[in-house]
Every structure is written in structure tokens, then in C-alpha cells.
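Continued from yesterday's entry.
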Amino acid sequence: MIHLNKSLLSHRHTIQRRKTMKKIVAICLILAFTFAIAFTVASCGSGNNETTNGTTTAGTTTNGTTSGTTTQETTTTVNRADESKSAGVMTYDQYVNADVDSKVVIEAYIQAKQVYSEQYGNTTLYLQDADGAYFVYRLACTAEDYATYTIGKKVKISGVKAVWSGEVEITDATIELLDGYYVAEAKDATALLANEEELIKLQNQLVSFKGLTVAASKDADDKEVAYLYKWNGTGAEGDDLYFNVTLDGKTYQFLVESDLCGADTDVYKAVKNLKIGDKIDVEGFLYWYNGVNPHITSVQIVK
């Protein structure tokens, strides 16, 4: 019986050892499987991360290299006037030398636009390229078209060259939107203000005049004022604002064109706050009406 009990005990221990070994093997398999999954996940994660210039990025685009599963491109708008022209498009010099009443085709960039006229279905555009500027008068369009004429947008204009009281413009125009973006910086034309022969070469460009002095205008009651509603003082709030400035002893008349800068704009309000004798710097488009008559878009009082 003793030998039998020992045999039974030995058999029982063997069974227990086998069970223990099975548990150990099972645990090892589970651990191995777990590590395998973790390694796989870690590998996908590192595949989604990329180090560029010492910086780790996940799922982003850096210097044109994309990591992760989603590709995103970052686009930057380049402010540059393309000097090349499409076939059949005039250079600025060719446009300047074209005969009045002749057909013209130009490419340039929208710098500003007047309000949309619902009554007549048109607007007026101020355009500029690397060499000069253009005034497109009463371009026929819909309200929906007008909304697409964004500042800086490159366009192709076909129309007729015209002149009105010295202002060179394009009438009867059609428009085509093109790819390209350019917004010009104001060119300082202060030194040319008294030299019309040279100043007119900048016609319709965005220019600045500095160190001007606000001079008196006379309203409809012959009273001296800093500005007028309409050229003769017979207008009211919301009409064009005219004001006189002097530089080196000469007087010039500038205006805020209300269809370009209305009564709710900063420049309109700034002109209404002017006082005779104020020193100012201004920016605007070099419009011409029997002489220099810029459409002012900015007024800064010089302290």
C-alpha cells in the first residue's frame, strides 16, 4: 500500500507539473503575442512620424515632405506682377502708344473697385501691373461677377482706349479672370507733384504724397472750410469729398471718390476731421481731370 500510495503521489505530481508547464507555455505565448502587437503598433506610429530639421512632426507637411496617411499641401500666395504677357496682349508701352478709340487688350491686377451699380449693372476698376496702371470705366457685370473681382486678382481686359479731360481709360470692356496675384505698394510721387509732364506718366498708379498742408476751400456760402461735399460745395454727406492741399507754394485739389471710399470708410471720416493748416500724408490712385486729381484712399495727419 505504501508503494502504491507513493506511485499515486508520483503520478499526481507529474500531472501537476504538466499542468504548470502548460500554464507557463500559455503565459509565454500570450506575452509574446502582446509584444508582437505592441511592436507592430509602435512601427506604424513611427511610420507616421517624421523628424525634419530636428523637429518631430506627425501627419504634417514639412518642406514638401508628407508623413502620415493624409497628404496636405500648404500654398503661399506670391505677391508678384508677372512681366510676361499672353499672346495678343499689349505691353504697357504699347497701350500708352495706342491710338485713342482703338481696341486694346491688357493684362493687369485689380487694385481697387468702385461700388457695384445695380441700376446700370456695372463697376469701375483700378488695375496695375509691373509697368503701369489702367482705369477701366463702367465695366458691365452682374452682382455675382462683381463679387469675384477680388483685390490682387489678375485679369484680362479687352475694350476701347478713351480719354476724358486728360484721364486715359478703357471703355466698353469685357473681362476674363486669370491666375495670379499682385497688390502694388504706393509709389512716392511727392517730388513730381509740380511736374505734370513727369507725373502724368504715373497716371492711375497707386501713389503717395507727403508733407502736404490742408488749404482752405470755399463752400457755396463763400465760407472757408477744410473740405467740400462735391467740387462746388453743393453736396451732402455721402457725396464726393474735395479738399485743397499745398506743397511748395502751389495748391492742388484732391478728392475722396465716394463710389470708391464711401462715408463709412476711414479715409472719408479722416477728411471730414481735417482742419485748415493740418500737415498730412496721403495715398491714392493718380486720377487725372484737367490736371492731377487723385482719388485718395488714405490720409494720415503728421504730428
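--- second protein ---
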Amino acid sequence: MRKILLLFFFVSSLFANNFEISPKNISQCKNQICKNILNHYANFMKKIEHESFIRKLELINSYLNSLMPRYDDFYNTNVDVWSTRGEFLRRGGGDCEEYAISKRDSLKDLGVDNQKCLLVVQEKNTKKYHMVLAVWENLNKEPLILDNLSFRVLPLSKRYDLVPEYCLMDGKYFKIKKDGINLEPVNIRMQTYENLIKKEKEEKFWKN
């Protein structure tokens, strides 16, 4: 029995994320502030890895929202490059999509394997496009919304200010229904999303 337990812990350690930033990631920093941001983020991830599902969403949303926004406003000017989580943190901020991307990847590394998507929405008041992260606690329920413009994590139906448009998930595109539950595949392509996927495949964020 003891041997089985030791083997279990050994195998588990092989797949565990120790939340150590990769040397390649650190080497791309141009100053000490950048390195401090990466190391602080890694320590934060270690600290919250055993929190509950909801607490992880709340903490990641609040933590990353504390980084300063840097607007490039793709949806309204058609000029944009979507950054990976590493690029976002090294720069110390980003546009709405960078927040959503970084929250998605952070939650995945924290063991939150629930369905999640980069959700393109339209703001009712301004008619401008915006991106948030949608996370489903249960596929029979509407998703919870993590937004860089709000420190509150709320169900989609409680975000009266947002109109959901497209859901980007696993390299595919979906139209999200009003109930927030059903997703319908759509035949569209966004070059910025395609480029992001290519960059993410090449990025090694963590050491292991």
C-alpha cells in the first residue's frame, strides 16, 4: 500500500504545475518591473490553487483587473494584435481581449477545466464591441462573466449592459443563444484569433 501511495505522489508530481515562470519568459523582460510582475503572478497562482471554483474566478478576475488597461480598440478601429498571457503580463496590461485570454489561461492552470470561451459582446449603451470571459460552472446553466470593467463575477443574465455576440473556444466559433446555455457553430473567421492560437502554441509560460 505504501509503495502504491508513493507511486501515486510521484506520478502526480510529474503533472503538477509548480507555478515557476520559464527562463524564456523571464528573459523577454526588458526591466525589473516586468520580472516583478511575473514573479508576483506566479506566487499569487500558488497561493490560490486550492481555493473553490467560485473563489478562483473571483480572485483571478480581481487580480488581473488590477493591471492597467492599454487600449488598442480593435473592434472599433479594425487595428489590433491579440497578445498571449505572457505578453500581457510582461507589458503590465492590455486591451479587453488580453484580460479575457489571461483569465482563461490562468483558470485552466488552476485546474478549472470547465467550459470557457472568449465572448465577444456589444455594450448596450455605447454600441461598442467588448470582450469578456464566459465560464460555465454547469453546462445546464448560463455562464458566469469575468470582465475587466467589473470586479464582480455575475451570471450572463445579470449583465444587463451586455449583448452576447460570438463565442471563441478551442479554435472554433459559436453564436451564443440568449439563454446563455446553447451554442450554435457559425462559419466566420477572425484573423486576430487565428494568429493568437499560433502564438500560444509557441509560448512556454511555465518552467514545467
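The chain has one domain: 53-202. The radius of gyration is 18 Å. Will compare against the first tomorrow.
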